Amino acid sequence: MGINGDAPEMKITLYLLVFFTILLNGSAFADRTGHRALRDPLLSCEQQEPQKKQTGWIEKDTLIYYRKHVVQKKETLYGLSKQFSVTIDELLLINPVLREGLKKGQIIKIPVKDPHQFTNVSSGTLVIQSREKVEPVIVEEKIPAEVITDHRCDNYSYGGEYFHVAMMLPLYLEETGNIHVFDSLAPPESIDYRAFKFIQFYEGARIALDSLIRTGMNVRFYVYDVTDNLTALKKIIDGPDFEKMNLIIGPVFKGPFEVIADFARKHRIPIVNPFSRRNDVIMDNPYVFKVQPSFYGQMNQLADYLTTAYPDANFILVFHNRIQDQDTLAFLRDNILERFYRELPPGADAADSLAVGRRVSEWLYYQEGVSGLKTKLAPDRDNILMCVSTNRAFVASVMSNIHGLAAGYRITLTGMPEWMDYELDLDHVMKLNLHLFSPEFVDYSDQKVKQFIIRYRYQYEGEPITEKHAYEGYDITFYFLKALMEFGPDFTRCLPYMSYHGLQLDFDFHQQGDGGWENESLNIFRFDSYRLVKVE
Of 21, 88, 223, 416, most Cβ neighbours within 10 A? Predict the structure, then answer.
């Protein structure tokens, strides 16, 4: 059944008419308390085996393509690598001068993997001239005519056609008949009902959809109630509408997602997994987009930032249980050392390699104590202490016992995403220059966030809650529908060139081998004047 929305051209097909009529009219169950909702156990962060980082795609003595960029005030190598979806190593390789630092107004080269994507692309051969002169140079060449005339991401023009988008959420419509409205000043929590578990995701998505429709986008939006009933799911995919989808968001649960992802692969439909961190959801399926970075993907991004921001630092891995933490420790050690070894000059000998190896050590707190840490700290350089534990008591004990060392050593402590919820001593936090990281963050001082909250309150008479996925629903829907509008149904190859800084999520998608795409964006924070601020 079609429903006319806020704009006259909007047509949305909903299979949930009665249910959403109740909600959009200001149900007593719209959560107004701001209390935390319990996370679904199926959505928990599952750590996977670390994967080997792929090697760079730029090789010497080969033709490369690049765009030119004028450096702006306050830009950093790390920020440029995220903005243009390249690695810092790749930027340094074709811009050796950047090893001396960025300067405002400087013109640098940004490598482009696919020259068909943009019109303003230059080309050249990357040449290593000799062993004595190791700095690479770019020998510019004329771009072949077939590259110039080929399809690019910047030549699509949206003509007003309708896009078909499916959203598949567990809404448990069969249970809505058992919901009773009480005439009470304290209505029951919406989390008491499974039917409300993901309703804020839909509500955030609806706000994003309305915003895009106001810009001229035409969408037929299909919302399906998909739980773990595979028989009902088969009826949906056998229906007449499903094959014509341009985009599928969901399902949430593992079994249904595997079924729909297989369907999407066969029909070449992009499909978004909004919550899982498991690597297997993108395996062997180039049409799957995994929004949540894997655990080891996050650790890789953290190591990338730290080795760039502190290139001469001494790294110490802090842990609680060697057996429990051994995979994470091995991953970090190998990842950091790999970056250091790449910086060695061609003529480096065994002594140079040994010196690099000594820059990464481990500290078993309960066994070695603070005196053991002192033997590993460097008095003349930055010391990066990377703590991989999520044990609250251990974290508190470590910070309490080492903060005094900051008077004699330059120490930066990094922690895990779970530390965001810990009650940490702010004096210890400041002295240890604590850095934290998380793929998700809502800055309530941001103007976009403030506007979203106002709009949400007006439209749904409730509060958007991060744990109930309102902001994620907005970010995911806005980003992928905007990609459809900007690049057309073939948008997948263009996403590496489309950065997005959202309300809760940032997006930086990269294809993982021949499989699907993973969001590699990560927020890194430090404390400034006792406030948590985002590192740009």
Answer: 223
